Amino acid sequence: MSLARALDRFFRHDAAGGILLMAAAVLALIVANSSLSAGYHDLLLKKLSILLDGEGLSKPLILWINDGLMAIFFFLIGLELKREMVEGKLKNPADVVLPGIAAVGGVVMPALIFLAFTWSDPLLRGGWAIPAATDIAFAVGVLALLGKRLPAALKVFLLTLAILDDLGAILVIALFYTKTLHLDYLYLALAPLAGLAWLNHRGAHRVAPIILLGTVLWVLVLKSGVHATLAGVVTAFFVPIKDRYGKSPLHALEHALSPYVLFLIVPIFAFANAGVVLSGLTLADVVSPLPMGIAAGLVLGKQIGVFGATWILVRAGWARLPHSVTLAQIYGLACLAGIGFTMSLFIGGLSFEDQAHMNEVRLGVLSGSAISALLGFAVLFRASQQTAQPQEEAAIAATPAAD
Predict the structure, then answer these.
(1) Integer CA distances (angstroms), 124 to 171, 288, 387, in order
(2) Sites in the chain below the pLDDT cut of 70
């Protein structure tokens, strides 16, 4: 097999995004703890400026990644949310109840466990949302490693749960992570917003004007103090799902953007944000409230919240499990929901500015996500073997005996 074909097969695999994400995180860990560490951190703090007559944007490279590139990431999430709401998994309210309540449990319980560890420190309490997020690419990647051993309905359940989880994270960022508000810029943002609404109403065929207005909206939202990534979500909701010619600009844009976000933007974000400095790290640092609260929130909070909510609804008869899905598989999925990674690191960056706290955030996110991934894989692998055995026995019993 040629290298080109091998690469093509790799990038088409559902696990490819998660594998690249993990590779970028491992590379960041290696670089941050090598002789390249000083250069790594200096590069991320280098200022990149876009100025006109002295006015404009001037930010360190790390903020261009977290505010700029991640706006494209959130733009893609917005496209996925709109598609799912209009014609996908979120269209039928009855199909949303079980994963929706599970998602709520998966946000509330990790936050409560985190607060139990950090309640005595008002500064640390501000990071309560860090363990509440789920990384779709990583979780789906681990699920994909099990191949066809698991029912397709389980992946649909995970995707619905993760999409609703992302929606919750977007609302949390909008409501709780806006520190200063400049209303004049928000008033100016109404102009590109009106343009986007008009293009959506007209069923615009070309996406270039939408992207241009979305970029203007991003700059104004950034200047307003509201986190700029939200501009990506808002812009996405104004991309027409059907244009006046019957084609779908939303589908085309989502299809075109997905590879760049999954294989370029998210790994760059991981490389820039996952560099935990291990030198001088002691056991006391590892078990301090911030990393322990994050790790426990991801590992225990997600299990209790997602599985607990699902178990209660099913046992009470208020909801039914998806076809061919067992409670053991739901427990494994709840473990996978504890892979916070991208969104957890992102919210961590919004919660804390100093490097000492961010190093603890990285430690908690990476350890909690790694434990959740390994535990989820083990539980689902075991559950797949338990469901496969009765099916094999039934198939043997159904085979006619030879004369």
Answers:
(1) 20, 11, 43
(2) 1, 53, 387-403
Q: Is 48 helix (H, G, I), strand (E, B) or coil?
A: strand
Round to whole Å and give the CA distance between 342 and 274: 9
- Residue 63's pLDDT is 84
CA–CA separation, 393 and 29 (whole Å): 47
Of 362, 306, 288, the residue nearest 103 (C-alpha): 306
Amino acid letter, 246 = G
Q: Tell me, what amino acid is at 227?
A: H
Q: Is 328 exposed, middle or buried (0-12, 13-18, 19+ CB in 10 A)?
A: middle
- pLDDT, position 109: 96
Q: Is the pTM of this model over 0.85?
A: no
Q: How many CB atoms lie within 10 A of CB 386?
A: 11
| Cβ atoms of residues 329 and 383 within 8 Å | yes
Domain architecture of the chain: domains with CATH: 14-385 (1.20.1530.10)
Which residues lie below 8 Å from residue 319, measured CB to CB, with a gap of 6+?
Answer: 97, 98, 101, 310, 313
